[in-house]
Amino acid sequence: MKTTESIAPPNKWERVGHSQALRRLFILFTVLMLGAYFAAVVQTWRDAINDTHASLTHINSMLVQGVRSTMKTHELVLLNFGDELIAQGTLLHPENGRNLIERMKTIDPEFAGFGLARPDGQLVLVSNVTNSAFLPNLAKMPESRDSFLQCIAKNRIQLGRPYFMDALKQWVSPIRVPVHNAKGEIVAVMTAGYPLDHGTTAWANMILPPNVETALLREDGYLQHLYPRQQWTMEQTYGMPIASETISQVKALPNNSGFTLIYFPRRQESFYVAYERLEEYGLYTNSFVPRSAVVGL
């Protein structure tokens, strides 16, 4: 006689234990999935920061090279022009140098104009300005005084703060070079101005990735150049210093070059910045991009 062994259904406690095991397995699986997701997000963020670091550092290195090579070239050019103007007796008879100073713009079209000043700051000759009665004294004008006096005191090339030059009727970024006699004494200062609205210098025509900007920041907190320029007026861009909070952050940087995150109050946003200090010109080169464009936050 065959007997059939019956299988008893799981009791209540067995069913509860099975349900709890499934729940724990689901929670573990969810935690693992979330962990993998957040790990991927963190790795993507790190990759984005590393790519930004490399890109901005490369752009800024090109900016540094462009500034140094351009300044050295123009220093030599201005010294040669200054020597020739002095040899023509321009300091005593300004119109003796008229033909040469007008030809300078053809020879070096990157500049908006050229001028020759005495060591006391008085301009004696400016391109495109025939009436010397309207020529200012660079040592007395607030916007030009500091850079002119530094040019004399340090006996070396100086970049002046950008300003609207009435004689040229445009905003310029001035450069000043001392001119010497055979004894090595400063007998004049050769000055020239880069146009800020349509400049042709290396730093005014860089091809940049989307959202990336470059700037030359002076140690006194004014911008020497901003590219591409925002929808601000020239006065807003160059006629006033950047926010004091930004200046404090820049001056607190521990190294002369590097990569950092800086908050720009005027833009109300944080930016990743690659920077380098060019002590010889009193400038910081900066290449930067909004943090939101990098990490999407």
Sum up the structure in keywords.
six-stranded antiparallel β-sheet, about 40% helix, 11 strands, elongated, about 300 residues
Layout of helices and strands:
Layout: H1 12-87, H2 98-107, E1 113-117, E2 123-126, H3 142-154, E3 158-159, E4 163-165, E5 170-180, E6 186-195, E7 213-218, E8 223-227, H4 234-238, H5 244-251, E9 257-264, E10 269-278, E11 283-290, H6 291-295
Antiparallel strand pairs: 1-2, 1-6, 3-5, 4-5, 5-6, 7-8, 7-11, 9-10, 10-11
Description:
The chain is α+β, with helices and mostly antiparallel strands. It has helices at residues 12-87, 98-107, 142-154, 234-238, 244-251, 291-295; strands at 113-117, 123-126, 158-159, 163-165, 170-180, 186-195, 213-218, 223-227, 257-264, 269-278, 283-290. The longest helix is centred in the N-terminal third of the chain and has 76 residues, at 12-87. The chain is elongated and about 120 Å long.
Short description:
The chain has helices at residues 12-87, 98-107, 142-154, 234-238, 244-251, 291-295, and strands spanning 113-117, 123-126, 158-159, 163-165, 170-180, 186-195, 213-218, 223-227, 257-264, 269-278, 283-290. With 297 residues, the protein is an alpha+beta fold.
Q: How much helicity do the residues have?
A: 25-40%
* Number of helical segments with 4 or more residues: 6
Gyration radius (Cα, Å) is 32 Å
The proportion of strand residues reads 15-25%
Number of extended strands? 11
Which structural class should the secondary elements be placed in?
alpha+beta
Q: What does the average pLDDT come to? A: 85
> SSE string, helix = H, strand = E?
HHEEHEEEEEEHHEEEH
CA(first)-CA(last) distance: 78 Å
The geometry reads as elongated
For the sheet with most strands, the description reads:
6 strands, antiparallel
Low-confidence stretches: none
